[in-house]
Amino acid sequence: MTTIVIHNCDVIDGMGNAPRRGVDVVIEGSRIQSVEAAATDGAAQPGPADAVHIDASGKTLMPGLIDAHCHMTYGESMTQEEQDIFTSVEGRTLRAAWNVQKVLAAGVTGISQPGGSYFIGVAIRDGIAERRIKGPRMTSAGRYITTSNGLTDWYPDDAGVIEGGIGIRCNTLDAMIAEVRRQVKNGVDFIKLADSPFGDYQSFRDEELVTIADLAHQLNKRCTIHARGNAETRAAVLAGFDWIMHGNLLTESTVELLAERQTPLVPTLLLLEVWAEYGDLIGSPPFIVEASKRMLERTAESLHMCRAAGVKLVVGTDTGFAMTPYGEWHAKELELLMKYGGLTELEAITAATYNAGVTLNLENEIGGVAPGMLADLLVVDGDPSQDIAVLQDPARIETIILDGEVVDVDRDLESWSNESSMTYTHGYLTRDVVSAAGAGEPPAMPIVRTRANPIAE
Ligand SMILES: [Zn+2]
């Protein structure tokens, strides 16, 4: 069993307590053994002589980040077709195994995958747990369970919902029950449902939500739901869902219900933010950029109410799109919770650590610097309680400890893209376009026509 002693660090415990200066932390095996005031010069130093000693004077020790919304099967996709159709199951699996390394290298020591194609997430999770693949601790759902009125049944009826897609269409209660049973048999940690894309209606019926939640719990599994609107969020909380994804458009009474039941909410602001702020840089369709801005404004109202009511907030990023590449933006979500929800730095850190434990099936065991907690930790050059942005700079994440061991990470891994689509071009080559070009005029803006949902997943 390895012992690690981290000397003279400043501790942010992830559990909301004020930072503690000058602390020695001893890790034995996979758990934290002690957190004590640093031994003074000449006094007996903690830990055995053969321990791994890390001098962290002037540096911060905090729990590793947990991202409760990270899709490893999406492969940094530029199109919806890329997530559902292109790239074989074998190709997607290899890419996911590559990309988890990038996530860990960013200081993210835990991820939860709320939906993805096939059972790739289950296999990657097991490969990491058995230490065949280097990646963060992981839990995974299977394909989203959805109806024809929720996410993922987006292709024409004659194309249907294909086998490689990220969702599975279940339009009857019997079909939903059968799919829960099939997914549990295949090793998922939790069930993910997808309600309406934009939250303008509730697509599942109340009794469907109750039945799915009850069955998942009976089989010792958890459940979560893509719920942007008020009605479906409320119905899912009442049905006993274990945490809620998004919750953009909430009323005061639903916020009170979330607080009363202590149902965690994962706002996933990052995807909206990158579209709203940077979509122009990468050619995102203007209507998506505008819709994201509007959704963020509404979300800020909901989020401020949530914070005031004491709703448990959890960091999730929707990493996995080309706008949210692996390892790139996870820690930005903490800054966004401050920007749109009014959280303090310490509250944002708690959302990314202790509060997120439930999504790893490890609540009260992970995400804290305290004796007995699992030792997934970061040594950070800087003080995130004063400047949250230091967590966004990989160079400042000096040491990553996962399950009680210092991990060696490669921060220069390249992207491994998927096959994207069979797009031939993005504009219409009319004679006017050609003659304008001949006259030296700038090319016409590409016309992008897409069915992709702007604020979908
Ligand atoms: Zn998502």
DSSP strand count: 17
Judged by helices, strands and strand pairing, the structural class is alpha/beta
CATH architecture of one domain: Alpha-Beta Barrel
Low-pLDDT parts are none
Mean of all residue-level pLDDT scores: 94
Give structural attributes:
TIM Barrel, 8-stranded mixed sheet, binds zinc ion, 457 residues, 17 strands, 6-stranded parallel sheet, alpha/beta, 18% strand
Structural description of this entry:
- The chain has 457 residues and is of the alpha/beta class.
- It has a domain at 65-362: Metal-dependent hydrolases (TIM Barrel, Alpha-Beta Barrel), CATH 3.20.20.
- Helix content is 30%, strand content 18%.
- It has twelve helices and 17 strands.
- The chain has helices at residues 80-84, 89-105, 120-129, 173-185, 206-218, 230-239, 252-261, 270-278, 286-309, 332-341, 345-352, 431-438, and strands spanning 3-11, 20-28, 31-37, 52-55, 60-63, 65-67, 108-113, 137-140, 144-146, 167-169, 190-194, 222-227, 243-246, 265-266, 377-380, 397-402, 405-407.
- The strands form three sheets. Strands 1, 2, 3, 4, 5, 15, 16 and 17 form an eight-stranded mixed sheet that branches. It has a six-stranded parallel sheet with strand order 10-9-11-12-13-14, with helices on one face. A three-stranded parallel sheet has the order 6-7-8.
- Strand 11, helix 5 (206-218) and strand 12 form a beta-alpha-beta unit.
- It is globular, with a radius of gyration of 23 Å.
- It starts with a strand and ends in a 19-residue tail after the last helix.
